[in-house]
Amino acid sequence: MNQKDPNFDQHELEKIRMRKMKAIMDAKKIKEAAQERIVSVSEKIDYVLRVVLAPDAYNYLNNIKNNEPNVYQAIYNELISPDVVQSIDYLLAIIQKQGGVPRKIPLDAIIYLERKVKGIKSKIQVKRGDDLMDLSSFLSKD
After folding, report:
1. Residue 127: its pLDDT value, please?
2. Are 51 and 96 spatial neighbours (Cβ–Cβ below 8 Å)?
3. Which of 24, 36, 51, 130 is the most exposed place for a label (fewest CB within 10 A)?
4. Integer Cα distance of 123 and 139 in angstroms
């Protein structure tokens, strides 16, 4: 019986080791899968912008981001509300389910937001003779 006990104990120890090793491997797999799924919110938002904006509008916005960070931040705040940030995973699921968006935001909208942030107002000028005047002044003059 003494010979059987050490073998039995050895066998039980081996089972425990195998269970622990399996648990460690499973935990490692779960951790790796979670790290793959965990993408920062800014990367998710960048993906949504890439999908929602027309390619030229996205490139223009990135150009603003690199050259004028303050203007970019203001445009970003106009485009991305706190509600969007909170429901970013839901938006990603919808985009992936539908395969994109039906209509993309054009370059004109980004340029409009940029002008709004910079305080640039559009004005049409009319040249009459040598005088250059605003369209509103020209129309009210007649």
Report:
1. 79
2. no
3. 130
4. 13
